[in-house]
Amino acid sequence: MSYRHTLAPARSVDDHRQRIENLLSPLTARTSERVPMTEALGRRLTEDVYSPLDLPVFRNSSMDGYAVRAESVAIVPATLPLAGVVAAGNTGELTLPAGAALKVMTGAPLPEGADCVVPVEHTTVHGEAVTIEKSRAAGDFVREPGTDVRAGELLVAAGTVLYPRHIAALAAVGLPDLLVTRRVCAAVLTTGDELVPAGYPLLPGQIYNSNGIALAAALADNGVEVVSLAHSTDNHDEFRRRLAEATADADLVFTSGGVSMGDFEVVKDVLTPLGGEFGPVAIQPGGPQGVSVIDGVPVLSFPGNPVSTMVSFEVFARPLLRRLAGLPEIETTDLPLLDPVRSPAGKRQFLRGRRTETGVALVAGQGSHLIASMAQADVLIDIPATATELPAGTIVSVQQL
What we know:
alpha+beta
């Protein structure tokens, strides 16, 4: 028996990207959840947060030194008796006797009656007395309550993606938890009889499974919670079982491998009868692509070559996932090529490159299996589908990896 493969017209990169964005658009309506402050980093705040208290909470010293009345040190040098020491965290009520000084540490509450602090470097201690060598005005080195924020003032606005500086401010007013947008939860499912987990010896014809680890890392780096990382052989029943486990826990599933035109394309074989759409996209690397919805969960299927998998993620998934997480857009810029480029007609090529002070250089080895070479790159060079040859010096768009 003989048969011939028929190849559908290749979609453009922009068309396939839009297809994926349409598929994932329901994820924009994710609910909120309350999480401990320690888990809020990188999350989008979904309610305005107002300060429940003044910061600083109480009058305190901004220096290690001596709390005094300004009138007592108007004429210097002035020698004052020491009335004690106030450490940070002191909860007792202290009063500064008239004409005396109290030693205070940075952050210590200012005693009643004191109106300024003389830094320790402007003093000399003599037993139970201190000589003030520089006069100070009322208010010097004193932190007044509410000079940072007042109780009831807006501290962080809804919609803010929480960075360490926001966490610092929110923690400083004693909030134990925050209401944030629920993260997108994704599952990663790699396929292929040839893949072996790290730590096991390789037999002839086998390779280590890098795609699963790499995709999980890429997802986590772009604000996605990875809820499962699994592998299936090319057995159809095993893949169906693994996929059912993935869709049970995730908002989104990524598969790697099994989408091309070979004899053991388990992903395409199983998902096509369930409504999955597989076909070529005019991109290099990463031409074979698939999208499906299984049990209401979008499934994005990338080719199995390691570089194809990672470029597919960068081009088709990463920009949208960052928007969903509230993260900054991926940096793109225009730079001159330092090397001439040849590109296949009709395919938008994404070459691995490295920025230099004078432009962007190609990273040696552009094959879709050369993952070690990709580790040397820091950008993708976007070569238009209409270009077949570009001389050195041509201005091209590059996308930060």
